[in-house]
Design a protein that fits this description.
2 helices, flat
Length: 28
């Protein structure tokens, strides 16, 4: 996972933890 992806991951987690799974799926 790149730094940019990690930042987006943390931002996505902060915005809405319930859609965190969708964010993770995008990285795969």
């Amino acid at each position: 996972m790149s730094e940019g992806s990690h930042e987006f991951y943390m931002r996505c987690k902060a915005l809405n933890p319930t859609v965190l799974e969708l964010c993770i799926q995008r990285f795969k």
